[in-house]
Each structure stands twice: as C-alpha cells, then as structure tokens.
Specification:
Layout (H helix, E strand, L loop, with lengths): L2 E6 L7 H16 L3 E6 L5 H12 L5 H25 L4 E4 L6 E3 L8 E4 L2 H8 L3 E5 L2 E4 L5 E3 L4 H12 L4 E6 L20 E3 H9 L7 H10 L3 E5 L7 E4 L4 E2 L2 E2 L7 E5 L2 E10 L4 H11 L7 E3 L8 E9 L3 H10 L1 H4 L3 E5 L2 E7 L9 H11 L6 E5 L2 E7 L3 H11 L18
Parallel strand pairs: 1-2, 1-9, 2-6, 3-6, 4-7, 9-11, 10-12
Antiparallel strand pairs: 4-5, 7-8, 11-12, 13-14, 15-20, 16-18, 16-19, 17-18, 20-22, 21-22
Catalytic activity: L-aspartate + ATP = 4-phospho-L-aspartate + ADP
Pfam families: AA_kinase, ACT_9
Family: Belongs to the aspartokinase family.
Length: 425
Amino acid sequence: MGLVVQKYGGSSVADAEGIKRVAKRIVEAKKNGNQVVAVVSAMGDTTDELIDLAEQVSPIPAGRELDMLLTAGERISMALLAMAIKSLGHNAQSFTGSQAGVITDSVHNKARIIDVTPGRIRASVDEGNIAIVAGFQGVSQDKKDITTLGRGGSDTTAVALAAALDAEVCEIYTDVDGVFTADPRVVKKARKIDWISFEDMLELASSGSKVLLHRCVEYARRYNIPIHVRSSFSGLQGTWVSSEPITRGEKQVEQAIISGVAHDTSEAKITVVGVPDKPGEAAAIFRTIADAEINIDMVVQNVSAASTGLTDISFTLPKTEGRKAIDALEKNKGGIGFDSLRYDDQIGKISLVGAGMKTNPGVTAAFFEALSDAGVNIELISTSEIRISVVTRADDVNEAVRAVHTAFGLDSDSDEAVVYGGTGR
C-alpha cells in the first residue's frame, strides 16, 4: 500500500459542492489501495477576505495575531472536508499544521519550515484513517506560536509532508489541467507539458508561473519527491515534475528545448542614481536591502560615466516591499553615498525557460527578434544557462508573452487550455 499526499487549492474547495467533489476524489484514491494524506487551502477567497477584515480594524495588523487569524481559513476547510469524507462512509481525521508536526522559524506571515515530525499523521493513516491537514501553517520552534508560510504555503506544506512521510507522489490539485507553456489566461493556445524537470520548473516558478511556488519545487527537488500537477475539476492526466522523465508505455517523454514562457507583473524597479564606482558600494546597497529582509530578483549596473566616476544600479523586487526598500536606502544614504532613488512599479517581466537553450544557438536572437517584431522595448536583461528574462512596461507584457510563445512554436493546434476556476491556485 503506497502513501499519496494530495493538495487541494482554494478554488477546489471554494464551496460545499467543491468540498464534496474533493471528498469523492480522495475516497477514490483510498479505494485504489493508497494511504491518503490531503492538504487543503482556505476556501476560495477566504484568506483575502480575512486580510481585508484585519486591515479594517488595524492599518498595520500585528504579525502574530494576523497569523492566528489567517490560519482559521484552512482549519475551516479541513474540518468540512473530514465531515464530507465521513459522510461517504470512510474514516477521516483533521489536523492543524502544528498537530501535523510542521515546525517553522519565528518569522510571522512568511515563515520557513525547519522540520516536519508527522508522528500523529503516520499513526492516523496506519489506523486506516484519511488524514486531512491544514496547509499554509505551522508552529514556531522556539515560542510555539502559530505561523503562516506566506502565499502558496499549502503547496510547500504538501511537499514537506510527502518528504517526511516518504510518499510515492505529491499530487497538487488546482484549477488547470497541469503546467502549460504559458499562462492559459493570457495565451489561449498554450500547450500542457507532460513532464518537466525540477530545474526548468524552478525557473518557471521563480519567473512568475503561478501553478507551483518556487519553495515547493525547491523542497521537492531536495528530497526527490515527484509532483503531479493536475485539476480537481477533471480526470485528465496532468504534468509530472521530477528529476527523471516519465515513461508512457514504452515511450519516454522527452524534454523540449523550450519548456515555456512565464511572466510576472508583481515586481517593481528601484534605480539607485549616482553611485560612486568603487569597491564596496554595491555591497553596501544590497546589505541594506538584505538587512531589511527583502528579496531581490534582477540586478543591472550601468557603465560609469568617465567624467564623474558615478554609475547607476537598478534592481527589481516585489511591489509589496517597495516602500520598505526605499525607506531603508534613504536611511543609509550617507553611508552609501548615492544621489537619488527612482521607483517604478509599472513594469513586467517576461522569461523564456528551457534546458535545451544552452546547446541550441540562436535561441537568444529569436527571443529578442520576437520582442522587437511585437514593438516591445526592453529595460533590463538577465540570463542563466536555461533562462532569459527581460523587464518591459507592464502594458506590453501580455503581447510580449504571446509573441514569444508563437515565435518558438509553442502554440497548440487548438485552444487546449481550460481554466476551471478563477485564481490558478
């Protein structure tokens, strides 16, 4: 008997009918001879509604109390799902993140998992129960406070439990049929990918693909846990994410030269103007950002002007961290020695991802030609062995994605992509 971990997003359990549909799918997996652990997100837009409520009573909610509030959404889902499963004649037990043994650090609202000790989950499934776990949450190692893992944390919860329980597979159920070559909301002719490597999926996730979160894929790669991304609204095979290609019959599914095109409009750009071009200046800028606990993405430094010896350094970061970054840099302006700061939140990032590009000349040229033909101006460029990313105006992103997708022959012959829900989570 194998153990399977399944994760269901908010769109899958958005209402009573959705919860009953998910319960039937879980029971079916149990009837097929599997031990089943299901991880659930909050119903529909519950988390957003709770955040709105918190902001109505406090302009800056305390992190500890906000975590206590937000974790209520997943607890509602897990209890209702356990009830639905019991109504189908099967035993189910629900567990909060702390009861499931998800141990985190003490950073509220974006905690990281330190360890998973799933003794109660193991005992429950060994007794013949279906275990239902509240995703997105854990308990801090030192203070024993309730913590949340940040957006998409339920995916990470599921993979972490799969690793700790030595599961055969972690199934991530969402409102699309798998991982596509582009966001099907933007590119109607996006194709579903049968198999993709951890490395390519990591690049897509970090470049804006919302089907899987970067932390979830990183965790799965570290512990070599195969992920099957599929829809809870259909019975179709989804996308396998693993270290080795899957096999269909006697035919092995090969990885394409280009895996897909991702985009992200949630970032902003800060330009530090008039930085002295001497050793230590860039370090001072990014140490200031790091001390403010802000993650950055792309970085570009211009060639310094010969007459002044000054340069400009631009970098991108989440829009939600923009104000904090500006305040931190202004506070340390004297120590860094720059002239001024420019902030721009009307940008978008387009990324082309594929392990095959490192051995196929001409990919970079074709990428930039596609953007040029679409009339898209490029502001920043960043590359790796398997990814090319550019920053453009936010208004140009959708057109740029469609142009690049077509240029690399990724369009399907028909409108294959179906979005069953509304959020992609």
